[in-house]
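Moderator note: this is an archived Q&A kept for reference. The question asked for a predicted structure of one protein chain; the sequence and the answer are reproduced below.
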Amino acid sequence: ETAGSPVVQALLIPAREQEGEWGERVERDGFSGFRNVALVTRLLEVANGIHRSFLLPAQHVGIPEDVNQIEALVAAIAERVAGEEDIVLGLEEDCARLTSKSRSQLKKGMRARCNGAQFSDISRIVGRIRLVKSAAEVEYMRRAGVITVAAVEAGYQAVRPGAREGEITAAIWGELLNNGGVYPAYPPFVAAGDRGCLGHYNALDREVRQGESVFLEVGGCYKRYHAASMRCAFTGAIPAWARQVEELLRMAMYKGMEMLRPGVPAKQVDKAMRDVLEGSAPTLQCHQYRVAEAE
């Protein structure tokens, strides 16, 4: 991940260069041995590409802010496939950052400049490859988890009657960054009282009151790898219904962890946990009623 929000970003790896000894060549020479491999991105992000990838500076194409980014991308691709026949380009059709208009312009431009180039949908190909983490990636996520635990504890310590939601959020932010973390994909969410029912709620100047709950959602991030946690704090005595719900959730969590093993579909783990929760519907209904009552 690079900083900022590029409108168009592409890694060009011509198919013919992937054939045969692709893996061996990368291991031996790195990506610099592939003349046509290039990263096309926003000009501002070129420095990130050079710093964070194996590509050489000459293998980066920066698109200035004052030009049409789709036209610049088409030109960069066309330059690297000039003279080729039967061109097929991989494109993430399921991409939130590529608008319908931009996608149409890209396809039209490539077909006009590259002998009727065809497109193949490669949506989520990178995500599928990255499902299995390396030992280093697992360690990064563990480090992120340690950061998250410390940040949640800082949030607990900041919760008290009279404390503002923003004040608690600031304490969490400080711990996230003071422990070697970097900015996460989502900010910490702190919601007092009935506002805990609002998903992705932005903390305001609302003060915590005596006897109410404070919802904390915190995601620590280490080298762009995340570990998130949701917790609930109380000012004063914890209500009996809250302890019942806590135990129910604990049982569901243990059930899910028991089933987490290679080869088990995620939907089966999800169903097993939901079965535990739905088997105790009266407790959940009591909880929902009390939340509605608080509103």
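Archived answer notes: Residues 2 and 45 are 7 Å apart (CA to CA).
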